[in-house]
Each structure stands twice: as C-alpha cells, then as structure tokens.
Amino acid sequence: MGNKATRAAFGETLNELVADGYDVVAVEADLSKSTTTVTFQDAHPDRFFNAGIAEANMIDVAAGLAVTGKVAFTGSFAVFATGRAYDQVRNTVCYSDLNVKLAPTHSGITVGPDGGSHQMVEDLALMRVLPGMRVLVPADYNSAKSALRLAAAIPGPFYVRLGRASVPEVYAPDFEMELGRAYVLREGSDVTLFACGVMVVEALQAAESLAAEGISAEVIDIASVKPLDAEMIVASARKTGHVVTCEEHSIIGGMGSAVAELLGETCPVPMRRVGVRDVFGTSGDPDELMAHFGLTASDIVVSARNVLA
Amino acid sequence: MAQTPDVGVIRSMAARMRLDIVEMIAEAGSGHPGGSLSAADIVAALYFGVMKHDAARPDWAERDRFVLSKGHAAPVLYSALAESGYIGREHLMTLRKLGSILQGHPDCKKVPGVEVSTGSLGQGLSIANGIGLGLKLDGNPARVFCLLGDGELQEGQVWEAAMFAAHHGVDNLIAIVDHNGLQIDGSCTEVMCLGDVEAKFSVFGWKTISADGHDVEALVSAFKTAEEALGQGVPVVIVCGTTKGKGVSFMEGNAGWHGKAPSVDERERAVAELTAAIEKEAARG
Q1: Does the CB of A88 have a partner CB in chain B at under 8 Å?
Q2: Shared-domain flag, residues A139 and A24
Q3: Are A134 and A100 part of one and the same domain?
Q4: How far apart (Å, rounded) are the C-alpha atoms in residues A299 and B97?
Q5: CB–CB of B198/B236 below 8 Å?
C-alpha cells in the first residue's frame, strides 16, 4: 500500500493506452516533468507536442488534433488549463464536442508551497458548468489510472482532476471506474460522507473516529462529479438522513454544490460542506494546509457531529 | 476538385456569394457583412479552385480542411458550402433564426462541411496547427487552410500559434489573413496598430506571401506559390489586402458595416449592385 500521487498515473497511462491501440496524443505547456507527460514524450516523441508556456494554444492544438480523430490529452496545471484557457475549453472543445481530455495536475491546496496563485480550488466549478464536459476526480493513483482510461474510452470532452501530493491507496490496481457511478467505501446508517479526490481518505478516517463515538458513517466516493450517480446519492441521503460533503475545492460550485443541487430538488436533508471556504490558498506544506483550511478527518468529524446535532 | 483553378468560375462564384451574404444578413436582421464581403474572393478561390474537397463526401479522409478563424464571417462560408452542395440553399435564409443549422457563428455539430466551431477570435490558427499535426501523424496528404481577420491578430493566442507552427514545422498549413484594415471600433491602425503583418509572421519563422485579396488571378497565383512551399518544414501565410464590405459601394471601407444588417432600402441598393456584378461576370464568360 504505497503512497503515490494521482499525477504519477498520467504519463504511464498514456503509454498503456497507445499499447492498447488508442490513437492518443498529448499536448503539454512546459510542465511535462511535473505532470509526468514526459514519460509519454520519452516513449512516443512523435505523439507529444510541447506548446511552451502557452496554455490557450495548448488546448486548441489538442482540439485540432481531436478534429483529425486523435484522442487528445492536455497537461499543464489545473489553474492554467481551466482558468487561463477557459474560453478555449468552452468555445472550441466543448462547443464543438471534441475528443479532448484535460488532465491537469496540481489541483487543490495540496500543491503546497507554491501558494495561492497555483492552488486551484475553482476548477470543478468551471468545468462542471460546461455542457458536454464530464468531470472525474480520482482518489488515488489506481483510480487516476482508471479515470484516464475511462476518459480515453468515451468520446467527447473530459476533465480528470489530478494532484501533486502523494495519497494513500484506496482502490486495488484492477479498479475500473465507471462514468456516473459513485462508490460506497464504507456502509453506515447515521450520516453519509460524500467525498472526492484526496478527501476520500480523510472521510474514511473520519468514519473510523465517528464509529468510536457510536456514530455510523457511510463513506461514498463521488469519483464522477459529472455526471453524478444521482440514484446512489439520493438513496444514501434518504437512508442516513444527514450529509457531509468533503472536497479539496471551494465550497462554491464544486462537488458539494452538485450534491446540494441534487438533494435540494429530490431529497432535502440537513447538510454540511467541508471545503475551502471562499478564499484563495496560501503557501505551506500540504499537511499544514489541509489543517489550515479545515480539510482534515477531524474537521469532517466536527461537521458530522454538527449535522447530527 | 479542379486541379487548375478556373479564374472565371471563382469570379462568378464570388459574385454570387456576395449576393447571398447581403440577402442572408438582411433577412436575418443582424450579422457581419463587412468582413464576409472582404473574404468572398478568398473563400471562393479556396472552395472553387484551390481546396480538394467533395461535398458528397464531407468525411473524405483526404479532403483539405478549412478553419474559419474569423467566425463572424460565417455567411461567406455558408454560401460557399451551399454553392458546393454541402447544404441546401433553402437553409441560407434561415441564418441566425431559432432552429436554423446556420448559427450566427459556425457550429460544426450542425453544418456538414464545417470542421470545427469558431466565433471566439484568436483560436483558429491553434486549431489549424492541431489539424495539421494530426494529418501529418497519419501520413495524410491533405492540407489545412485557416482564414484569419486582421483585427483578430490582436489576440495574443494567434502569436502563440504562429510560434508553435514554425517550431513544430506545421508545413501542411496555409494561413490567410483578410487584411481589410478595419475592426468594430474603427481602423486597426487607430484601435490597435498591427504594424507590418507580413514582417511579423516572417520573424515568427513563416514563409509569407502577399496578394490583392480581390484579384482572383493574383489569389490563385498566391495559393499556387503557397502550395509549392508546403512540405519544407515551414508554415505559409498569405496576407491579402482587401476592402471591408467589398462589392457594395456604400459598405466599402466603412467600419460601421462590420456588424450591421442593411435596411430594406439598403438591401435593395446592395442587391442591385451585386446582381449587376453577377451579370457582368456572366457576360465576361
């Protein structure tokens, strides 16, 4: 059970996809060593294109490659791929419904010392609102591999949110993620902890602590933020009657918002959202920042107690 | 299509397309006549002489690709697609109306023959780069043509793309600049001076060619020169001097006609002028 970052899956999985017969190409913006697309460049130099520090061009070059039938992945960091190149993602990739897969790394506050300019906590909101965009948030290295494979297998725009920091293993190496499916990682009856990305492990730890207090928490991984597994989310909310969402993202517009929108219309229950509370990030070590922004297992425990009170 | 472009055919097509453009925009009650009319000869040269394409097979693998980076000139593309047979002429008068396949800016999900949706300026050259690279990876001999506006060159992404094309040797790409000198707020020189467009592309590592964008013989010859320069590791741009609103006397050289539909009276006058031009081309044989 080694700790590995979700970004470590990127270049490796692209190589596997080519071996499996996918017509994969990748366009990077001068961050191939950080995103690990350099692994793909080394194996398939003819299929790798560095755009330099030019993210808008990176996205649209990928769009053009997709027009010719390629499965086109893009790299860079989440803040640049979604923020700086938003118009390209919206008006070219999504509006044309192209086979472009954004898989930027360094999402969320676990980027660490680079600070708020580089800690993207608004990307899920930006991507989720785009018609036709599918949004996946893998919890560990194995689910990241699976998410990338899933994105390659289904035509059309995808956003796969990858991170810089190492995270404990949650899924077995043979895990096969499905689009629009959530995963029950622990069953419970008093409260549901919906989590995604690095927060899945925190939610599992929180459930353990809550059990010691006699509170039975169900933990569900919302790996597919769009489309949501509406059926499972509603069923669990109906069963436990209390919900806490946990995400390394702004509480505005992300997974917690998506769950709130769904439950608000179908099964309103008391709810709390654990996430970054409408502020920018700041420099620090990832662990320090998780505590600073209230994203640890103990913060989830407090929210669970609170929603049950 | 034709291997040796027929200048007469291109001229008559351009004349007919100009009439389509004015009628479509008048019928729609909004749209961009100025930049559609300035591009009419260029687009006619591409669709009826230069590009290899076949309306009966919009998915033909070896078709040349066209990217209308200046997507607001959609009417000139729609007219070319109708004249080529990609879409029925009955669609033309539905431009910009609810339920029409002919959106205000080209939507590839709705219109056969449109390779990619455009409209947000500055993106087409990047897309064309990707198309060019994809074709090269496949060993596909098709070329990609990308039409840009001159005001559009103010978008920084165009220069990201220009740098990229030279660096990656996208040598199956021909960019064309419709250099009509005007944009919404006035002349390009007043709004944001472009300087020497050809020199700019040249220092970015492109082969540059200039042509009168309304002289069909000059255009055909420029395209021939450009085609001969392909496959040598260098992208090619043709900077075409044009007149905004070309073909309608009261629209020519007037920035006010960038994005305005003609009134009933103006439509009548424009149609009379453009019909006369069509007849002149027909008489020329």
Answers
A1: yes
A2: yes
A3: yes
A4: 53
A5: no
How many whole angstroms from its chain centre is CA B163?
A: 22
Q: What residues of chain A lie within 8 A of the CB of B107, using their CB? A: 95
Residues A153 and A12 in one domain: yes
Written as six digits, the tokens of B111 are 């219109």
Domain that holds residue A277: 183-308
Percent pLDDT > 70 in chain A is: 99
How far is the C-alpha of A133 from the C-alpha of A283, rounded, in Å?
A: 31
CATH number of B7-284: 3.40.50.970
Chain-chain contact of A64 with B140 (C-beta, under 8 angstroms): no
Please report the ipTM that was assigned to this predicted complex.
Answer: 0.97
* Contact A245/B at CB under 8 A: no
Nearest CB among A51, A68, A92 relative to B135 is that of A68
Cβ proximity of B34 and B73 under 8 Å? no
Per the CB < 8 Å rule, is B129 touching A61?
yes
- Specify the pLDDT at position B4: 82
Confidence class of residue B2 from pLDDT cuts 50, 70 and 90?
A: very low
Same domain as A190, residue A298: yes
Give B125's strand partners: none
pLDDT digits (tens, 9 = 90+) for A221-256: 999 999 999 999 999 999 999 999 999 999 999 999
Q: Indicate the length of chain A as a whole number.
A: 309
Chains A, B: CB pairs < 8 Å: 108
| Structural domain spans, chain B | 7-284
Indicate whether A178 belongs to any domain. Answer: no
| A218 annotated active-site | no
Q: What is the mean pLDDT of residues B258-267?
A: 96
- pTM of this prediction? 0.97
Region A271-293 average pLDDT:
98
Q: Which of A12, A28, A55, A261 is catalytic?
A: A55
Q: Which of A46, A56, A72 lies nearest to residue B160, judging by beta carbons?
A: A56
The residue written with tokens 């003609």 in the block is B262
Q: Are residues A154 and A270 in the same domain?
A: no
